[in-house]
Structure formats: structure tokens, C-alpha cells
Design a protein that fits this description.
The structure holds 2 protein chains of 2 kinds. Chain A is an alpha/beta fold. Chain A is 24% helix and 27% strand. Chain A has 7 helices and 18 strands. In chain A, helix 3 runs antiparallel to helix 4. Chain A is globular and about 65 Å long. Chain A starts with a strand and ends with a strand. Chain B folds into 2 domains: 136 residues, Aspartate Aminotransferase, domain 1, CATH 3.90.1150; 243 residues, Aspartate Aminotransferase, domain 2 (3-Layer(aba) Sandwich), CATH 3.40.640. Helix content of chain B is 42%, strand content 12%. Chain B contains 13 helices and 12 strands. In chain B, helix 4 links the parallel strand 3 and strand 4. In chain B, helix 5 runs parallel beside helix 6. The two termini of chain B are 14 Å apart. The chains are: A alpha/beta, B alpha/beta. Chains A and B meet through strand 2, helix 2, strand 3 and helix 4 of A and helix 10 of B.
């Protein structure tokens, strides 16, 4: 096969490229330049591009840098800023996978005559054509099926995840065996386009106006204030202090327009369900039947919880948890897994 | 599929070191010729180095039609341009507390970024607009000039499009409207094909780079007219008449001189030969690639360097075109890259008013002295097929 490998400069995609070369494929590496601004982590720095290039050179494969900064800004960063401005909590990594890596880059791979696009994600694709399943990576601690949960058959039929069957330790051991310079490189953390010095608030404050807000309890009584209502997430505990009972308080509601944050006790914040917007719903294979049982995961490394999926007339879906859960903030992605095969993603949607 | 024989059509980026140049440089370090000292010393080995350096300087001066004392050796085109832009600006700032720098909107980053750095420390900079062919209009320049202007930077020919500026008219305009302003022309791209004695006559500062004309990378020169007052950009032992400190690269200077000697001897025949091949490539591609657009309008009065062909190919992304052509062994350029190696949008095409959709498919073919008919045949066979495949979607 002729395979284009997206190489971030990290150990996972380095090993993915190396394994494909070992398997005898015709491999070409590509690093995406996604962000032009300052950043000290993730996939955007010159040092990371240099690491990817050096690994490609060591493997004897061609390497290219693709400038997708305009697309990244338009399809990932602008929506991220816009969602925060509306008081929602977006997941830019998922959006980047959806719109950039497994859309723009995948199409580029097609046009350049590649049979497959490979990445270093910890996930697996199993099954027959047209009935492919996206499954969790072999390393539970590193599984990335959540951030790929919106991929459908079309994308899954054209991607390879060479390290999906490996644990992170095995990936690092392979990198060491092959003498790859990225073998000991730490995992990337956080949002790649936000530098640790400025943080989320600093980043957003240069792009949208952030507003202070009052904090009230369930009875409308004043309970403090926050600097930026746009940065407060439903379910958040940090910065909300303690109630008169001395117990921790959680954000139960955010109203950006009224500049008001409502807090409540740990019990008050629990929700029995979450509604996924109809326009955001995607299914890996085919839609779940109304009332089907499933397992929901509401964050990248969240605990999977059993649920029932109710389909609403407007194509939205209500995910009803067996046991009440901390709330899913509007904008967050919920990945649904197969109740009988809990490693397999069946679909995903974004909390309305 | 990676092919082994390369069709190299990126001579404007860098062109191969000529064997005669390599031989001349090797002779400098040839043990049989005696030890090579530091040119600033006084013993025989130093004097040998000094003699080689000054002979090289004489040849660079002759190539530019200047007095040898005007020629400063540098590490290349970027350093030369930086010194030409920032040196007078710094001197003016020390002298009268201000400087006003004009530069064309299509200048090389070595000029633009030097001007931006000057702007950061509070100096005034102004970007001169260009027309659709990328040319600075002398009337526009005239309206922009004032007695306060420190320097005007307009390149002899553009590195991306190959378009030649009406330099004599522009220099004349500056002389008339702002007689104290220096004119700097970056002649790096023009040097292989243009007689700079004539083309840059009257300019106060002229820059050269060796690797664009068959010499080594890492060597360049800046001619500095006697009236120019500038502050050096690097300090030290006061070499190059205190305009550029640092031990001189004797072999590099000899290499530059050797390359210039070859260019001066061959230019008259090489220019028409290269232009004929470029025209055949251009006409063939315009016929075979549907919608291919000449970036520099054919009607433009301006001349274009003989080796340059700049096209915009609608319906393809230049990054994809470069990768696909590279896999077929055809080496061309899509513009300048940033630190990561990613292509950047071209400020040159933007200044010319080329629509972003069209600029997205921009590609530069650049021919050199060594380009053969076979190279053109191969490009004519490969490029249309690659464009068609990309447009089909793989």
C-alpha cells in the first residue's frame, strides 16, 4: 500500500511510520503546520516538525510539511472561540480530527494517490468493508477512540492506526529498539494552540470580550463572582468555593447573557440525561434503534457509564444515564459505545 | 514512486556549484600553493590570503562597475540586505534621531523583515505598492518621497516572478526628489542574467549572493557607495573597512569571483538560450494545462528574467502540486517557506493583487545555465499529467 503518515513529531506517530515501513509499505510522512501563533506544546512547533523530519530521514522516507493554518484557524480555532463566547465548552481536538486531519488531510492523501492515511492514534479499526468498527486502543490508559468517535465508514475505510494494538510502553520500547529520537519524548498535553504562559483565559481574552459574572446559589442568593463567565463550565468545581454547609459547590448553570453562574451541591449538580443535538449526531455504522442500550463516555478519559439512547423527533438523541452523572457541558462530545462490545464506538454527538 | 533522475527547475532557489568554481576554491587551500593565513596578518601566509581576497574583490567590483573599495564581502544575500537596510537606518537614528525607510511591497524577506525590525525600534517604514505586474511606478515613488527619506529599497528583479523593476527611472526619481536618500537594490536574483554595471548604475547599495549563480552557499557581497554612512551590523576586528567585522572567507570570496567571471563571460549566450527553453516550457504548459494562468501579464511592459516562469494553476493546491511533481522527480518551487518548512502565502502575489484562489495554485519554474532541452521535455510530459491527476482527485 501507499500510505501517508501524519507525523506530529511525537513517539506514537514516529512508531506508526516505522511499523508501516517495516511492513513493506510505500510510506511518506507529512507534518501539519496548524498554528502560526505562539505555542509551546502539541503539534504546532518548529521543534516538533524537526523531530518528525529527522525520524522520516532515519526511516528513509520522504517528508513534507503541509500548511493548514488557514483551515485550522477557520475550522477549529474560530469555532472554539465562538463556542466559548456563547458559554459553551468545545473540544478543539475532536474538531481538528473531524475537519482537518480526517477531512482536509484525508482528501489531500486521496488526491496524491495514497491508499491510506495513517496516524499515531491509539484506536483500532476492525471488521468487514461497510461494517467497519472503531474500537478502543489496546492501552486503556491511552485509548483515543473518544476523540475519533465521529468518524464514519468512509473515513474508517481509508485510515490505519498502526499503534492501536500496542500499549504505550510497547510503543516506546519499539521506538527505542529502532533508535528513534522521539522514544523518550513526553506525551503532548492540553490544547496545542494555547501556550501554557497565557493559558485559556489569556488566549480567549485577546479574541473575545470576557465578562465578569455574579455567582448565585439555587435560591438566587449571592455566592461570589467570577472574572470571565465565558470560561465557566457546567459541572465545574474549581473556584466555586463552599456552601454554607461547608460542602463543595459545583456549577449547575451558566447564563452568559445575564452574566450569571448558578452553583449547587454535589447532589444538585447531578443530571439524569444529556441531549445530543440532532445536527451533531454521527454513527460509525448504522443508527442505534430507539431505546437501545449503550455505554456513554463524556470526556477523553472519562469513565464509561451505561445508558439508554432515546431518539427524539427532530433527530436529536437523549442519552439517559442509568445512574445520575455530573453534567455534560454544552459543546462537549458524548461518545457512545456498544453495550455488547464495549470497546466499539457506535456513534457520537455534541451536548446541546 | 520516487524517480532517480531529477529534473531540476528550481535554479532561482539555488543553482549547482560550477566545477570551475569548486576547482578555484580548492586551489586556495591546496597545500602545494603554500599556507593560507588570516588576511589581516602580516606574514607571507597572511599576505597570500590578502592577495587572493583583494583579487576577488577586484573581480566583484568589475562585475558591478564599482570601485573595489566599495565591495564588502558578507555571508550571503540576507546579510547583505540586512546591512543595506539596517546599517544606514541605524546611522541616521544616531545622527538625527529618526530614519524613514521605503521599500517595495515585493522585496525579499531579508529586506522586509529588516525594515520591520527597524519599525519595532520606532523608525518609520513605508511599503511602496506595485502594479499588477509587481512593478513600482516611478510616479507613485515620486509622490511618496520627501527630504526625510533615508533609503529606498527596490530589488533589481523579483525572486518569485523574475520581473525586472524600472530601476534607472526609479533611481532618477529618487535623485530628483530626495537627493540625500540612498537607493539599495537587491540584485541577488538578477545577477546571473543581467548586466549590473548598467542596470544598477547610480544605486548606492547593491547586494549579491554567490549560490544563485554557480558559486558557494554562504558567500555574498554588498557594494556600498562612498557617500553612504552606515552603522555595521556586526562588531569586532574592523575588517572590510570597519563595515563588516569577522575573518574573511577567502575561499568563499574566490568562489564568488570565479562564478561571476563565468557569468560575465557566458551571459550573452546563456540568456537567449535559457529564455528560449523557458518560452518553450511556458507555451507548452499554457497549451497542455487547462486554465493555467500567467502570473505576470504577457502585456506587462516589464521584462522578466530569462529563467523565470511563474504560473497559477487553478484547481490544484500548490503544496499538493509540489509533492506530486517531486514524486515524479520534477523539482520546482511554490513560494517561500517558514521556519517549519511549511509554504507561506506569497506577499509578492498578494501585492500584485492576485486573488487568493489563484495564488493557491502558484508554482515557479526557474531555469539555470545548465537546464537542457531534455529537462523541458520531461517537465512538459510530467506537469500536465500530474495536474490532471490532482484535479481528478487522485
Amino acid at each position: 500500500m501507499r500510505v501517508l503518515v501524519a507525523m506530529s513529531g511525537g513517539v506514537d506517530s514516529s512508531v506508526a511510520a516505522a511499523l508501516l515501513v517495516e511492513q513493506g509499505h510505500e510510506v511518506v510522512g507529512a507534518t501539519l503546520k496548524l498554528w502560526g501563533g505562539p505555542s509551546d506544546s502539541g503539534c504546532c512547533s518548529v521543534a516538533d516538525v524537526e523531530d518528525a523530519r529527522r525520524v522520516a530521514q532515519q526511516l528513509g522516507i520522504a517528508h513534507h510539511v503541509f500548511n493548514l493554518t488557514e483551515e485550522f484557524d477557520r475550522l477549529v480555532v474560530a469555532p472554539y472561540v465562538g463556542e466559548h463566547a456563547r458559554g459553551r465548552t468545545p473540544n478543539p481536538c475532536i474538531e481538528c480530527n473531524r475537519s482537518v486531519k480526517f477531512d482536509r488531510l484525508l482528501h489531500r492523501a486521496d488526491r496524491l494517490g495514497f491508499d491510506r492515511l495513517a496516524t499515531g492514534h491509539h484506536a483500532r479499526v476492525h471488521g468487514a468493508p461497510a461494517a467497519l468498527r472503531l474500537r478502543r486502543g489496546a492501552d486503556p490508559a491511552k485509548d483515543q477512540s473518544y476523540v475519533l468517535s465521529m468518524l464514519g465508514q468512509d473515513a474508517l475505510s481509508r485510515v490505519v492506526f498502526p499503534v492501536g494494538d500496542m500499549t504505550k510502553d510497547e510503543v516506546r520500547a519499539t521506538a527505542r529498539r529502532l533508535g528513534l529520537r522521539t522514544a523518550g519524548k513526553p506525551d503532548s498535553q492540553d490544547v496545542c494552540f494555547i501556550g501554557s504562559a497565557e493559558g485559556r483565559q489569556g488566549f480567549l481574552s485577546r479574541r473575545v470580550e470576557l465578562h465578569p459574572a455574579e455567582v448565585v446559589d439555587g435560591g438566587g442568593r449571592p455566592a461570589g463572582s467570577v472574572d470571565a463567565v465565558e470560561l465557566v463550565t457546567v459541572g465545574q468545581r474549581r473556584g466555586m468555593g463552599h456552601g454554607t454547609d461547608g460542602k463543595r459547590r459545583y456549577v449547575t448553570h451558566v447564563d452568559v447573557a445575564a452574566r450569571r453562574v448558578t452553583v449547587g451541591s454535589a447532589a444538585e449538580v447531578l443530571r439524569s440525561s444529556v441531549v445530543l443535538a440532532g445536527s451533531s449526531l454521527t454513527w460509525v455504522d448504522r443508527p442505534l434503534a430507539a431505546g437501545a442500550r449503550a455505554v456513554a463516555q463524556v470526556s477523553a478519559h472519562g469513565r464509561p457509564v451505561p445508558c439508554t439512547v432515546l431518539l427524539q423527533p427532530d433527530n436529536a438523541a437523549e442519552v439517559v444515564f442509568d445512574d445520575p452523572q455530573r453534567p455534560v457541558a454544552p459543546g462537549q462530545t458524548v461518545a457512545l459505545y456498544d453495550v455488547l462490545d464495549p470497546d466499539a464506538v457506535v456513534g457520537a454527538g455534541i451536548a446541546a | 514512486m520516487v524517480v532517480n533522475t531529477l529534473t531540476y527547475l528550481d535554479h532561482a532557489a539555488t543553482t549547482p556549484l560550477r566545477p570551475e568554481v569548486a576547482a578555484a576554491m580548492a586551489a586556495v587551500h591546496d597545500a602545494g600553493a603554500g599556507a593560507l593565513g588570516n588576511p589581516t596578518g602580516s606574514h607571507p601566509a597572511a599576505q597570500r590570503a590578502r592577495r587572493l581576497l583583494e583579487e576577488a574583490r577586484d573581480e566583484v567590483a568589475a562585475f558591478l562597475g564599482r570601485d573595489p573599495g566599495e565591495v564588502v564581502f558578507t555571508s550571503g544575500g540576507t546579510e547583505s540586505a540586512n546591512l543595506a537596510v539596517s546599517g544606514p537606518a541605524e546611522a541616521a537614528r544616531h545622527d538625527r534621531g529618526e530614519a524613514v525607510l521605503l521599500y517595495s511591497a515585493v522585496e525579499h524577506p531579508a529586506v522586509r523583515e529588516a525594515a520591520r525590525a527597524a519599525a519595532k525600534v520606532g523608525l518609520h517604514t513605508f511599503e511602496l505598492p506595485v502594479d499588477a505586474a509587481g512593478i513600482v511606478d516611478p510616479d507613485v515613488l515620486a509622490r511618496t518621497l520627501s527630504a526625510r527619506v533615508t533609503s529606498v529599497s527596490v530589488m533589481t528583479a523579483n525572486n518569485e516572478t523574475g520581473v525586472l523593476q524600472p530601476l534607472p527611472d526609479l533611481i532618477e526619481t529618487v535623485r530628483r526628489r530626495a537627493p540625500h536618500a540612498y537607493v539599495f537594490t537587491d540584485a541577488v536574483q538578477a545577477a546571473p542574467f543581467v548586466d549590473l554595471v548598467e542596470a544598477t548604475a547610480g544605486a548606492d547599495l547593491v547586494s549579491l549572493s554567490a549560490h544563485k549563480l554557480g558559486g558557494p552557499v554562504g558567500v555574498g557581497a554588498l557594494a556600498i557607495a562612498p557617500r553612504v554612512v552606515l552603522e555595521p551590523r556586526q562588531y569586532g576586528g574592523g575588517q572590510e573597512r570597519e563595515r563588516r567585522s569577522g575573518t574573511q572567507d577567502v575561499a568563499g570570496a574566490v568562489g564568488l569571483a570565479a562564478a561571476l567571471r563565468l557569468v560575465a563571460a557566458e551571459r550573452a549566450t546563456a540568456g537567449p538560450r535559457v529564455a528560449a527553453r523557458r518560452d518553450r516550457l511556458r507555451d507548452g504548459l499554457l497549451r497542455a494545462v487547462e486554465g493555467a494562468h500567467r502570473t505576470v501579464p504577457a502585456s506587462a511592459a516589464a521584462g522578466v528574467l530569462p529563467g523565470h516562469l511563474h504560473l497559477c494553476v487553478p484547481g490544484v493546491e500548490r503544496e499538493e502540486l509540489l509533492v506530486a511533481l517531486g514524486e515524479q522527480g520534477v523539482c520546482v518551487s511554490g513560494g517561500s517557506s517558514c521556519a517549519s518548512g511549511a509554504l507561506q502565502p506569497s506577499h509578492v502575489l498578494a501585492a500584485m493583487g492576485i486573488a487568493p484562489e489563484l495564488a493557491a495554485g502558484a508554482v515557479r519554474f526557474s531555469l539555470g545555465y545548465g537546464t537542457t532541452d531534455d529537462d523541458i521535455d520531461r517537465a512538459l510530459a510530467v506537469v500536465p499529467a500530474v495536474v490532471a491527476a490532482l484535479r481528478r482527485g487522485g
